[in-house]
Amino acid sequence: MGVATIPSTSAQVREVMLRFLAISQRRCDTTRATGCRTHRRNQRTWPLAIIDPRNPEQEEAAALHDASVGGIAFLYRRSIDVGSIVRIRLFWGEADSPMVPTVVRHRTLTNDGFLIGCEYLVSLED
Q: Looking at residue 70, what DSSP letter applies?
């Protein structure tokens, strides 16, 4: 699948993020913030589309692991370097849904691929 070329505004990205978090809060198991985490996590398997920085012309499949107001973690078949910018389509089925820019904060090898933890680069506040 090709990458959408229409740029999105921060307001459009913020709107899709808020919609995604509202839906995930209703449909997911929620865990409280513990340790160094400051936000509650909503856990659910959910298809995402991401732009891997090594292949910026193509969307690829990933699976949501958890999401919060501060960031998102997903399972992916390859490792992505910490510090890399990854764009995520939160609603894969909506081709015109804006891509959400994130930065990779951690990666962990799992039995299902790599768990990639990202911080949103767009604030949820106006």
A: S
